[in-house]
Amino acid sequence: MASQIVKRMPHAILLAGPVGMGKRAFASNLIQALSCEYPQKGGYGCGSCSGCRLQCAGSHPDNMTLSPKEGKQTISVNQIRQLQSHLALKARQSLFKTVAIFPAEEMTLNAANSLLKILEEPPSKTVLVLITSAFLQLPITIRSRCQQFFFAPLKSQEAQVWLQQRLSSSMDLDPMTLLMLSGGGPLRALEYAEQDFLSYRKDFLNNLFSLAQGELDLFEMVKNCLKNDLGEPLYWMSTLAGDMLRLRSGVSKRFLVNRDVADSLQLLVRRATFEMLFTLQKKATCNREMWKGQININSQLLLEGILIQWLMCFSESHHEHT
Ligand SMILES: [Zn+2]
User: Fold this and answer.
1) Any idea where the DNA polymerase III delta subunit C-terminal domain is (predicted)?
2) Which of 29, 38, 82, 91 has its CA 20 to 30 A from that of 182?
3) 148-165 pLDDT tens trace
């Protein structure tokens, strides 16, 4: 039985799909099952043997989890070197050595190259699980050496029902809006609700609109924003720019991501050219990638740059050309 599992398990598995689809939960269930002394039907761990208990506690000697270190945005080549030494030793307790890497797309180029060497000659009885929400950002050489599993977004009806059951009634939030704003993954949408991202977003958007009306100082806004994580605001900026391009092309308000502020966007769109909106969208997306990918990025400059671009969209100077 055990030898059959060893033969059947792929060396590397890639779990891909939008954030919030349960990829990490799937990976930890799989890793637990591989360490379990009494695997259950359906491929689950028993939950009570010492292998299961150590995995649940995150302290199983045969498992290694690689993520960006605290305060860092990327998985470094040093971490992959540590992985190499980890894999050089035989499994101490379970049949398999297991590795989880997420977000796999955050490996530096050097890290990805080192991992590739491991994937090219995988040690026996080892299962690497790579998790990514940005499949195409992973080098094709890595992707092609993994068995790939895609977590497709749920049909929105199913996702709405799932989310509705988990939202406490006191939150008074519309599941559809949450799903739209968080990019479609139900777990991510739930996180949005629980971490109060929506009121952060509301403040941020209000500030953006005040900025466009000349009622708020740009540097005041930057100062306030820097107290929080920048990933979400940069994402919101790119969805706003996308929505304004839709409005500029005559798309109905009900197809917008930010439907709740459709009227404010409609007013602003009249003051912006296609060209300016395209530039804004490109810059927001690009800044978000930069912010995600770099260790020593200057958040203040990044934010100032995008807000200046936002202001330029609505400034008077290009009116005569529209
Ligand atoms: Zn068990």
Assistant:
1) 195-310
2) 29
3) 998 877 777 888 888 888
